[in-house]
Amino acid sequence: MTRVKRGTIAAKKRKKILKYTKGFRWGRKSKERAAKEALLHAWTHAFRGRKEKKRDLRTLWQVKINAAARKNGVTYSRFINALMRANVGLDRKILADLAENYPKVFKVIVEKVKR
Fold it and tell me: Residue 109 sits in a domain of what CATH number?
């Protein structure tokens, strides 16, 4: 049986791990064992962060819509309820954008669903 030298594969594996830790602080960017551990934590937080981002953005949209709706004399909950009853197919992301950047258009929407 022929001899298999694993040095190149192992070095490649280590190099790959250290490439991912570029920008980390202290020994976590240069020491293999510390880098591996740091990546385990980093990727866990990144996974969780992607889920949290969706929650945070929805909360932000609700705040923006509420602020704009109150300027037009209606609360957030009543406005959303009126939208649902009027079968308006705008989601919170679009409504928040309208509220922030196009307040006149948002006001028209509020007036339409208020009736």
Answer: 1.10.1900.20
